[in-house]
Amino acid sequence: MNGLHVVFKVGDGIYALSAEEVLQLEAFEGVTPVPGAPHHVAGVVQSRGRVVPVVDLRARFRLPAIERTMDSRIILVTVEDRVVGLLVDSAREVITLPPSEITAPPRLVAERSDGFVRSVARASGRLLMLIDTRNVIGGEPLQ
Q1: Which residues form the signal peptide (predicted)?
Q2: Which end of the chain lies in a sparser environment, N or C, as judged by fewer CB atoms within 10 Å?
């Protein structure tokens, strides 16, 4: 693990995920809805010649929907040989997190976050929640 993390915002929360999981960041230009998809699946987009499901992290984190802005991004990630997009409010930063700054989440956070928060870290005076991408995506077949 190289310590690089992509930092993004969803609501008032600041989150991060390992850059090793990230294929690319894309501007949000809309999605094609999928009938019968789970509530947190915003739809699909075409990227790199393939159709990619997009998980709306606002819906997944049980936050109210917002009108998307020019800051909205889709973070394309690879999890278990699947490519999935994560729709976030903004993502503009890649930082290095030393292992000494990463700790297990407090028990209450771990218990209440549905396994979404893998660890927490301090960086530049901010507290970041490092997400567990596999748990955020969920077990539903997305592709």
Answers
A1: none
A2: N
Is the full-model pTM beyond 0.85?
A: yes
Structure tokens at 79: 């999890």
Could you report the per-residue pLDDT of 60-95, keeping only the tens digit for each? 999 999 989 999 999 999 988 899 999 999 998 999
Architecture per CATH, domain 4-136, reads as Beta Barrel (2.40)
| Domain spans, the chain | 4-136
- Cα→Cα distances 42→71, 88, 106, Å: 17, 11, 30
